[in-house]
Amino acid sequence: MCMEMREQVLADENASTPLQQQDEPPPSSASSPPPPPPASPPLDTYLLLCVGGLEEDTIAATQAFFRARQGSGEWGGREGGRGGDAVAPPWTAHFCVFEIDDEDRLGNAGCGKLILDTNVPLEVVLALPFLLGVLAYVGEDHALPPEREVGLAHLYAVTHDASNWDAAMDLWARARDYCTAATAAATADRPGGLAWTERVRSTTKPLSLKFRASVLRDGAHAYKGMDMLPVLGDGTSIRLGEKHLKVDLKNYDLEVVAIVLQQHVHLGLVLDNRKIGFSSNLPPERVPPILFREGVTACLRPSTARLFLAMCQPRVGEVVADFMAGVGTIPFVAAAMPPPFPQVLALGGDESEEATEFYVFKEGDVWVH
What we know:
This protein is α+β, with helices and mostly antiparallel strands. The protein contains 9 helices and 15 strands.
């Protein structure tokens, strides 16, 4: 096995189109010195899940997505990218790649893992369309023993002693508030009517919430995922405040996830409020996949199809063709991709008439036959 951690910097000073804004402000006619540039926002740390073996391609697609969103004027640039006089703070993104040999990738826990440190706005990171999951990074460990007693004790220590709990909880709270606002959900279910961010940051009121623990495990261990769940839950509740946390597997506020592959452990907090749960598999995606006949799901995830399309880098008006399309996941996704993905003509075919004749997919809130 080969495992190494590497860093890639998106805002590279030598890059031709860096994410960091490098335009110089116009010279001032006054004798006073120019004002100092605005301070950069603090970095958030994410655990991004992607297709195993395509980590480098995911990083390239993420870089392109960030730059396109910045160039569209949604964020960054001058005065929000709309030609104002004030220079926006510099934006940057640093990636750490967890690398492992292909033969050691086992099951769902063998998915690709990227640790992203960035001050790119939260809503832009959550909008990345080609990821299997976006979590707040809590911590990691690469020495989990396979023996039952010592292994479970080690997992408890890794969970309880993780160094990024405070920052992860703050990021989780901001994500929950953003998702709640985006879906126009009522705030009546929040004790005291406070936003999650206010509650997490409060120094006077204890944080009270319902949570669940989820484990995604693959490898040779003398214990199962079900054995790890109470240990992960105990480490979480004692770290965050045992008296104020309550386990609720269905109506929970917070989901803590441990992804365990052999001796490697990655901990994260789910950053959306769908309450689907990781269980023993990767959760279903936000956009339902194309369905074939009576509810049989297409094998290719829409996020994976989006990554393949991003790797192609098509131009406006070009043709995207998949001649082994099955039920047509790639052409359907290509046709439905929102900006900044260019508008293309998407074609698909398959030797199986059964695959191409009966299909149904979801466009917005409408099922299309």
